[in-house]
Design a protein that fits this description.
Structural class: mainly alpha
Distance between the termini: 66 Å
Number of helices: 24
Low-confidence stretches: 1-8, 104-123, 148-159, 174-178
Order of helices and strands: HHHHHHHHHHHHHHHHHHHHHHHH
Mean pLDDT: 78
Number of strands: 0
């Protein structure tokens, strides 16, 4: 029988701690101790609370906690893994930064696509995020992102933020009547009728984006955002109406971010998203915040950083604090399905696909916020098919993608084009290039929307066909350029 292993000496543990600190720059173990003491908890109490986390209510796997393991984390003798960090932030209601797992300054960054997201954000960018969450930060940020002279933002030349900064920000949280609007702008009261007018216009702009694409409606959305910000600054309102106004502003900022992203302006999109996240916090609307984080995750995933996308989506689920509808849960699960497909984690991808399909069956549209109108079984089918294709199984992906194309509403023109492009790419990867080309030509001819999101999918299809040496690849590339612009392919 082998002898029992000897326990590490304190000196050995301290040497190991030094190695771990070098491996995890920004980690400050003392912060975890300070946070626990501030709550008046012993290590045993903290361990008990972690063990009591219901698995079904969180997006991580609660660890089997012990006071001994917590002691090792607090002394820096062991670095808490992802599930441990999520458990600590969950039960202590604190961010990863507050608990010392990372600093606010980004000292390293996950790998990203060269030329799309820079590998290291500047200290100025981190300062911008910090100031956003300070007391006057939201007012200053509104002025910056809604600048009358849009060239002001262009001259600033924002660098796109990378994974660590985005995740840290995520954890900080989570047709109008002209007379009524004019009165509110002139310092009079903004009541429920003004809020109803602004909400109606916001919904109309949201649906225009689906039909015309982000490039066509971006400026209109920013103008509407400016209007809402002016109402917030100049009008008087009750606390409840003020929260509603901040919620409208947060949703408009999300829309401005999405249309910036759909226009290929990744850096500007991130600023709108982060300001929207801050406004959603002011509105006490975790569901709006969760949807903004989902959009941020979409951008991170599409620019080559699916791990950051996963972190953002997990933050969305946790930060929503049980206030999401079944449809919202389905959408986040579907987004996780796509992200895990890109990281090659098949079991995780399929598990979230099952969750998404289950949740969408439970959805009740009457319970959903207005910005969820476009989500349905087709959304889950597209996410599942895309994930399977990324996992190297395009044959299994095709039935899901066919279902998505057949079910999506023709009114959501950009989604229809995107789904058709994804289906064509799956056929190409499955070796049926003729069907892929036929599908792509039909889709492009029937629905023409300038969209970076769709253009990226079509460009990937053209690359796949060229790699396969198909004679129709050049003609398809010309067709794509004719409708999407020369920069796409």
């Amino acid at each position: 029988m082998p002898p029992n292993p000897r326990p590490r000496s304190v000196q050995a543990e301290q040497e190991r701690a030094s190695t771990l600190r070098a491996r995890h720059p920004g980690w400050e173990p003392q912060r975890l101790t300070d946070a626990r003491i501030a709550l008046g908890w012993s290590r045993a109490t903290l361990a008990r609370k972690i063990r009591a986390i219901p698995r079904v209510s969180v997006s991580f796997t609660p660890p089997i906690a012990s006071d001994q393991t917590i002691m090792r984390h607090e002394r820096g003798w062991a670095y808490p893994g992802e599930d441990w960090q999520a458990a600590y932030t969950h039960v202590m209601a604190a961010s990863r930064t507050d608990l010392g797992f990372c600093s606010r300054e980004a000292t390293r960054a996950p790998a990203v696509t060269p030329g799309v997201l820079p590998p290291d954000p500047s200290a100025t960018d981190d300062e911008w995020v910090r100031q956003l969450w300070a007391d006057p930060g939201l007012s200053r940020a509104w002025e910056e992102v809604t600048a009358i002279d849009r060239r002001t933002i262009d001259r600033r030349e924002f660098s796109a933020l990378t994974g660590l900064t985005l995740v840290a920000a995520a954890h900080e949280w989570l047709v109008a009547d002209p007379a009524r609007i004019a009165a509110a702008l002139n310092g009079r009261r903004a009541d429920t009728s003004v809020i109803a007018d602004l909400t109606t216009t916001t919904d109309a702009l949201r649906r225009l984006d689906d039909k015309l694409g982000g490039q066509a409606v971006h400026n209109m959305i920013v103008e509407q955002l400016r209007l809402v910000v002016r109402v917030l600054k100049n009008a008087s309102y009750t606390e409840t109406d003020g929260q509603a106004l901040h919620g409208i502003a947060a949703e408009l900022a999300r829309m401005a971010g999405w249309t910036s992203y759909d226009s290929g302006q990744n850096d500007t999109a991130q600023r709108f998203y982060l300001v929207g996240l801050r406004a959603a916090h002011q509105a006490d609307s975790p569901s709006i915040a969760a949807n903004i984080l989902r959009c941020m995750a979409h951008q991170a995933r599409s620019t080559g950083d699916p791990k950051t996308a996963i972190s953002l989506l997990r933050s969305a689920r946790t930060g929503a604090r049980g206030r999401l509808t079944a449809t919202e849960h389905a959408l986040i699960a579907a987004s996780l399905t796509r992200a895990y497909g890109l990281t090659g984690e098949r079991d995780q991808a399929l598990a979230y696909s099952d969750i998404a399909y289950g949740k969408i069956e439970q959805s009740k549209p009457d319970d959903d916020p207005p910005y969820m109108y476009w989500v349905g079984p087709h959304t889950v089918a597209h996410a599942t098919g895309s994930s399977l294709a990324d996992l190297g199984n395009p044959g299994a992906a095709i039935p899901h993608l066919v279902s998505a194309v057949e079910q999506v509403d023709d009114e959501v023109a950009r989604d229809l084009l995107e789904y058709s492009a994804t289906l064509a790419l799956a056929h190409a990867r499955a070796g049926d290039s003729d069907e892929a080309i036929s599908l792509a030509h039909r889709a492009i001819s029937s629905t023409t929307i300038p969209s970076t999101i769709v253009g990226t999918e079509l460009a990937e299809l053209c690359r796949q066909l060229r790699a396969d040496g198909h004679p129709g690849a050049a003609e398809l590339a010309d067709h794509v350029r004719a409708v999407a612009g020369p920069a796409v392919v």
